[in-house]
Write a structure and sequence with these properties.
The complex is a heterodimer of chains A (111) and B (115). Chain A has 111 residues and is an all-beta fold. Chain A has no helices and 12 strands. In chain A, 0% of the residues lie in helices and 50% in strands. The chains are: A mainly beta (111), B mainly beta (115).
C-alpha cells in the first residue's frame, strides 16, 4: 500500500541555518504531496502542497519540489527561525478520502 | 469564519468503557475525516463521512464508529476501550467537490487517555 517515509528527528539547528527534512513516498498512482506542521498544543496546519510531478510548493519561506523520478518531496528553508520549531509531517493523498502521513520530524531551532 | 472545533479537549477513561468525541466542521464544509495520532507517530486515517454516510475507512476495527449530522458536525465513538486507544484524535473538515483534492482543515484534537 501507499506509504510515506521521513527522516527521524529531532533536527536541531541554530537560527538562520539551512533546513532540509527528507521525505520519500511509495504510491501506486500519482498522488498529491503535502507538508503539514504541528505547533505545540495545536492541530495540523497545511504548510505547502504539490499536485503533480515537478511542481514546487512554497509558503513562509519553506519549499518542496515533487520529484517523481526519486519519489521524493524534501522540505527546505534557507534560514530558519526559533518560531519554526515544531513537528513537520510529510503526507500524500491519492484521492479525496484520506491522507497518509509519515511519522513526523521534530525541528528545534535555538537562538 | 469559525474553524474546526473539537470537544472535549482531554478525556480519561478506563479499559472497557465507551467514549464519544465530537467535531464541528468549518463553515461551508460538508465532509469530516477522523484520524488517530499515537504519541510520537503520524496521524492514521480512521474514516471519513460525507453527506452523513461513511465514505472510506482505514484499518480500524468495527468498535470505532461514527456519525455525521445534517449540519455536517460529526461524532467518533469507540467501544470497549483498550490501552492502545490512548492517542490524540484529530478531526478534519473539507468541502468535497468533484475532481481535484480538497484541502482538509484540522481541529486541535481530543487527547484520550485509557487507564
Amino acid at each position: 500500500g501507499d506509504s510515506v517515509t521521513q527522516m527521524e528527528g529531532p533536527v536541531t539547528l541554530s537560527e538562520e541555518a539551512f533546513l532540509t527534512i527528507n521525505c520519500t513516498y511509495t504510491a501506486t498512482g500519482y498522488p498529491s504531496l503535502f507538508w503539514y506542521v504541528q505547533y505545540p498544543g495545536e492541530g495540523l496546519q497545511l504548510l505547502l502542497k504539490a499536485t503533480k510531478a515537478d511542481d514546487k510548493g512554497s509558503n513562509k519561506g519553506f519549499e518542496a519540489t515533487y520529484r517523481k523520478e526519486t519519489t521524493s518531496f524534501h522540505l527546505e528553508k534557507g534560514s530558519v527561525q526559533v518560531s519554526d520549531s515544531a513537528v513537520y509531517f510529510c503526507a500524500l493523498s491519492e484521492g479525496t478520502d484520506k491522507l497518509i502521513f509519515g511519522t513526523g520530524t521534530r525541528l528545534q531551532v535555538f537562538p | 469564519e469559525t474553524g474546526v472545533t473539537q470537544s472535549p479537549t482531554h478525556l480519561i477513561k478506563t479499559r472497557g468503557q465507551q467514549v464519544t468525541l465530537r467535531c464541528s466542521s468549518q463553515s461551508g464544509h460538508n465532509t469530516v475525516s477522523w484520524y488517530q495520532q499515537a504519541l510520537g507517530q503520524g496521524p492514521q486515517f480512521i474514516f471519513q463521512y460525507y453527506r452523513e454516510e461513511e465514505n472510506g475507512r482505514g484499518n480500524f476495527p468495527p468498535r470505532f464508529s461514527g456519525l455525521q449530522f445534517p449540519n455536517y458536525s460529526s461524532e467518533l465513538n469507540v467501544n470497549a476501550l483498550e490501552l492502545d486507544d490512548s492517542a490524540l484524535y484529530l478531526c478534519a473538515s473539507s468541502l468535497t467537490t468533484s475532481g481535484a483534492y480538497n484541502e482538509q482543515f484540522f481541529g486541535p484534537g481530543t487527547r484520550l487517555t485509557v487507564l
